[in-house]
């Protein structure tokens, strides 16, 4: 991947084709310095090199033409191989924090329930299995594409997202528990205050009645925290 987290081939198709073209030119150029047999009596300037014969040989010209277009002709097949990893783009292109934010913002008050976290983490686990199952390389003609780097990058991105999700779940659970604990403390203070007269006793009885009314609601709030 490049700096923009785009899936690219290294070296590029153009670089590989350019190297092949240069190699073909160098091979042909060498023949300019090799002279035909039977020219020992001629001056070096008058000697005829093999280059002319090679450059006009139809079979050699055909092979050179095949070589100079060999890699460029596989470009579409290479693009098909790249598309195998397209489904993972949103995981390695997007920052893990942005992915988690998009997930939590789908829920009311930005607080997903535990089952939603489980489903999300499970889907990421399946993606990790999928990426591991992808071939280690693709062979196209004379080219062998090594997929280790992209597989490692995708796997690392998925693991980072999972870690961020777990941290968000922990923070959410901690916040919920602190809120519930604070409510309990407030209720406890109200109930345990001194009751020197009838009026204060009536006030405590009213607080106890409120606690009973809120008991069911607090049980509902506490249930998901316990599961977390």
Pick out its properties:
228 residues; mainly alpha; two-stranded antiparallel sheet; 9 helices; 2 strands; 4% strand
Short description:
This protein is mainly alpha-helical and 228 residues long. It has a domain of 83 residues. Helix content is 68%, strand content 4%.
Number of strands: 2
Calculate the terminal CA-CA distance, rounded to whole Å. 37 Å
Count of discrete alpha- or pi-helical segments spanning 4 or more residues: 9
Structural class: mainly alpha
Order of secondary-structure elements: HHHHHHHEEHH
SSE order and pairing:
Elements: H1 13-30, H2 51-56, H3 58-70, H4 75-83, H5 89-92, H6 96-104, H7 114-133, E1 137-140, E2 143-146, H8 148-192, H9 198-227
Antiparallel strand pairs: 1-2
Helix pairs in contact: 1-3, 6-8, 7-8, 8-9
């Amino acid at each position: 991947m490049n700096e923009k987290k785009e899936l690219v081939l290294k070296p590029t198709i153009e670089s590989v084709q350019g190297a092949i073209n240069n190699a073909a030119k160098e091979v042909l150029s060498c023949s300019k310095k090799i002279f035909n047999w039977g020219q020992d009596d001629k001056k070096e300037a008058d000697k005829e090199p093999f280059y002319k014969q090679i450059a006009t040989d139809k079979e050699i010209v055909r092979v050179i033409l095949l070589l100079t277009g060999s890699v460029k002709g596989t470009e579409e097949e290479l693009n098909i191989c790249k598309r195998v990893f397209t489904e993972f783009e949103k995981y390695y292109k997007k920052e893990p924090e942005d992915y988690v934010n998009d997930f939590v913002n789908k829920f009311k008050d930005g607080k997903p329930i535990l089952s939603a976290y489980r489903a999300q983490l499970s889907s990421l686990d399946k993606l990790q299995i999928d990426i591991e199952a992808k071939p280690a390389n693709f062979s196209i003609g004379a080219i062998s594409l090594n997929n280790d780097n992209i597989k490692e990058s995708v796997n690392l991105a998925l693991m980072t997202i999972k870690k961020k999700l777990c941290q968000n779940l922990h923070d959410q659970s901690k916040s919920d528990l602190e809120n519930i604990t604070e409510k309990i403390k407030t209720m406890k203070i109200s109930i345990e205050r001194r009751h020197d007269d009838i009026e204060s006793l009536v006030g405590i009885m009213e607080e106890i009645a409120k606690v009973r009314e809120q008991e069911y609601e607090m049980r509902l709030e506490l249930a998901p925290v316990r599961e977390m």
